UniProtKB/TrEMBL annotation, chain A:
GO BP field: pyruvate decarboxylation to acetyl-CoA
Lineage: Bacteria, Bacillati, Actinomycetota, Actinomycetes, Micromonosporales
InterPro entries: DH_E1 (IPR001017), PDH_E1_Alpha_Subunit (IPR050642), THDP-binding (IPR029061)
SUPFAM superfamilies hit by this protein: Thiamin diphosphate-binding fold (THDP-binding) (SSF52518)
Gene Ontology terms for molecular function: magnesium ion binding; pyruvate dehydrogenase (acetyl-transferring) activity
UniProt keyword terms in alphabetical order: Oxidoreductase, Pyruvate, Thiamine pyrophosphate
Name of the featured protein: Pyruvate dehydrogenase E1 component alpha subunit
Cofactor section: thiamine diphosphate
Domain annotation Dehydrogenase E1 component: ranges: 12-272
Species for this entry: Micromonospora humi
Pfam families for this protein: E1_dh
TrEMBL record, chain B:
Organism: Micromonospora humi
Entry keywords, A to Z: Oxidoreductase, Pyruvate, Thiamine pyrophosphate
Domain of life of the source: Bacteria
Molecular-function GO term, any one: magnesium ion binding
Cofactor: thiamine diphosphate
UniProt name for this protein: Pyruvate dehydrogenase E1 component beta subunit
Domain Transketolase-like pyrimidine-binding residues, every copy: 4-177
């Protein structure tokens, strides 16, 4: 997806928003076990960044990863089937919410180890380019990840070897319950600067601003520039994880939540559309998700006898654990 | 017949595979000048793009290799110290190993982790002398410990060609070996070999300890006929090959340079006794529980499995049944 297309941006944030809301319903209904980390409120970042990427560019996501996977172009129906653990899912029911991947659209996976994916994406982009493909990559991570040594090592490696990776920090103010002020010495931008990496701060609630900043960075990278960092300031509208719907943790003052929720990326982008167009997009997103829910719930559950399938790509079979 | 040293066998395996397959790249610290005397000549032959000297960022370059593999490369990552594997256990286990299953078979991660100089290097003490192959067997990452130059060549070649991650431990105790090798050839992963045939007891020896086991077998040849089985690959283990041997001898001793608790020796014995009724209780000679190799040479040696211990274990097994 390239070019400033306000409708595409709106459709994408709306799709992610409603996908997450439908997914939460399925969590409540017991169809998605293990819960999810909702991306609600942060949709503008995935949409804005992916709007600046081409189809064969590469992406890695996070534990809060549904938005990244959808914005890069994965099929919402197969994504939802994955969350429901069905063989029709993106990962054949082997990955679930935190590991959804779609290599066909350049998503090398959501990754549930905070800070771990940056180095993986750097290596993947490097190898693709070594093979002559003009690709760049974007790796998403939260404010919590900027204190992980392995991510900072990845900053160094990407900058040193000039691998065009867009490091996208989704700064939603908290790592689970830990506020940024309690965890981050210095700044996110300062970490980029330390490695000679340009960085841009952007309003993550505005998909258009994220797209602009990403497109500018991607253009510099395609022109031969090295990695860059975008710090998107955002707010998580809902729980860290749906377990919080049952166990209320006291760490965000209600006024702060209300204030955070008042800047809604879906509304900000929606206001840029003709109301009739917006209504049309809403209806089509709803139709896509209705079909996605039907598809997901109709998918067969995996056969327990296949639990070790895909463990080894080489064809090695593992000994089973039984008697 | 040409003499092949263990180190040059590794060098040759790397060079042959890099020549055969453009997707093979090598990463590691100080590899451009071959500080570990393994990557010798590779930079000149293949250039800095494929022979990448890395900063001291083990976690990043290990996962960089994972990413490169996801995009089609077959990276070989050299580690200067066996204990560095503890730093990158996360990257290997949580990512490289888990990706194929977690993605439902969308990808392969054909990375080789090469540790030239695993185990004690005499005088390098606590943080340079580990032999953590059992950890990788435990998590199910293919793990090989070649004992000879021919196997060093053949197993490294097979590791690089394997579509899964493989850890190659080249024991410090074997690095200076040389042998006559007509034409080095790939050695299949997961296949052990009987190094010496015998009738009374099977000794399983891992890595450099194969040579100690052969020496002990020779010493005992007047008293007992000792079979020496070299598994070569610890995971997946050639249990069928070993069981064939133990069915003939009826006795089992394992000598393993890993720690005792949850070590590979324990797994070998457990699996064999599940399948074979032995004539005598099996025995193992290992490092102690929780081993930290002390510096002073006498202490360093005291913590590693030795020939005397192996001799005693074999004799006890013969006496017991
Ligand atoms: C390395 C690591 N440590 C801890 C966790 C547990 N955990 C999962 S998400 C999370 C918070 C991450 O915060 P942040 O990076 O800001 O992302 P956010 O959840 O805010 O999107 C933690 C601590 C983990 N998954 N990985
Ligand atoms: Mg956060």
């Amino acid at each position: 997806m390239t070019g400033p297309d306000p409708v595409w941006l709106y459709r994408t944030v709306r799709l992610i928003r409603r996908f997450e809301e439908r997914a939460i319903e399925l969590v409540d209904a017991g169809e998605i076990v293990g819960g999810i980390h909702p991306y609600l409120g942060q949709e503008g970042i995935a949409a804005g960044v992916c709007a600046a990427l081409a189809a064969d560019d590469l992406v890695t996501g996070t534990h809060r990863g549904h938005g990244h996977v959808l914005a890069k172009g994965a099929d919402p129906a197969r994504m939802l089937a994955e969350l429901c653990g069905r063989v029709t899912g993106l990962n054949r029911g082997r990955g679930g919410s935190m590991h959804a991947a779609d290599f066909g659209v350049g998503v090398l996976g959501a990754n549930a180890i905070v800070g771990a994916a940056g180095a993986i994406l750097t290596g993947a982009v490097w190898e693709r380019r070594r093979r002559g493909a003009d690709v760049v990559g974007a790796t998403f991570f939260g404010d919590g990840a900027v204190n992980e040594g392995m991510l900072l090592e990845a900053f160094n490696l990407a900058a040193l070897w000039q691998v065009p990776v867009l490091f996208v920090c989704e700064n939603n103010g908290y790592a689970t319950t830990m506020p940024v002020a309690g965890a981050v010495a210095g700044t996110v931008a300062g970490r980029a600067a330390a490695f000679g990496m340009p960085s841009t701060a952007v309003d993550g609630q505005d998909p258009e601003r994220v797209r602009e900043a990403s497109a500018a960075a991607v253009a510099r990278m395609r022109a031969g520039g090295g990695p860059e960092l975008i710090e998107a300031h955002t707010y998580r509208f809902d729980a860290h994880h749906t377990f919080e719907h049952r166990v209320r943790l006291d760490y965000r003052p209600p006024e702060e939540v209300a204030e955070g929720r008042s800047r809604d990326p879906v509304d900000i982008q929606g206001a840029r559309l003709d109301p009739a167009v917006r209504a049309e997009v809403d209806a089509s997103v709803e139709a896509v998700l209705d079909a996605a829910v039907d598809f997901a719930l109709a998918g067969p559950h995996p056969d327990p006898a296949t639990a070790l399938d895909h463990l080894y790509a080489s064809g090695l079979t593992a000994r089973t654990g039984g008697g | 017949m040409p003499r092949l040293s263990y180190r040059r066998a590794l060098t040759r395996a790397l060079a042959d595979e890099m020549t055969r397959d453009e997707s093979v790249v090598v990463l590691g610290e100080d590899i451009r000048v071959a500080a570990a005397n393994v990557t010798t000549g590779l930079l000149k032959k293949f250039g800095p793009e494929r022979v990448r000297d890395t900063p001291l960022s083990e976690q990043a370059f290990t996962s960089f290799a994972t990413g490169a593999a996801l995009a089609g490369a077959r990276p070989v990552v050299e580690f200067q110290i066996p204990s560095l594997l503890f730093l990158v256990f996360e990257q290997i286990v949580n990512h490289a190993h888990k990706f194929p299953l977690m993605t439902g078979g969308q990808c392969a991660v054909p990375v080789t982790y090469l540790v030239p100089g695993s185990g004690s290097r005499t005088g390098w003490a606590g943080q340079h002398s580990d032999h953590p192959y059992a950890l990788f067997a435990h998590v199910g990452v293919t793990t090989v410990v070649p004992a000879t130059p021919a196997d060093a060549y053949g197993l490294l070649v097979s590791a690089i060609r394997c579509d899964d991650p493989v850890v190659v431990f080249a024991p410090a105790g074997a690095l200076d070996l040389r042998e006559d090798v007509a034409e080095p050839a790939p050695v299949p992963l997961g296949r052990g070999v009987v190094r010496r045939s015998g009738d009374d007891v099977t000794v399983v020896a891992v890595g450099h300890l194969v040579h100690d086991a052969l020496a002990v077998a020779e010493e005992l040849s007047g008293q007992a006929s000792v079979e020496v089985f070299d598994p070569r690959t610890l995971y997946p283990f050639d249990f069928d090959g070993l069981v064939d041997s133990v069915r003939r001898t009826g006795r089992l001793v394992v000598v393993d340079d890993g720690n005792r608790s949850c070590g590979i020796a324990g797994e070998i014995i457990a699996t064999v006794v599940e399948r074979v009724r032995l004539a005598a209780p099996p025995r193992r000679v290992t490092r102690p529980d929780g081993a930290v190799l002390p510096f002073a040479p006498a202490l360093d040696r005291a913590v590693q499995p030795g020939r005397d211990q192996l001799t005693a274990a074999i004799q006890l097994t013969l006496k017991d049944g």
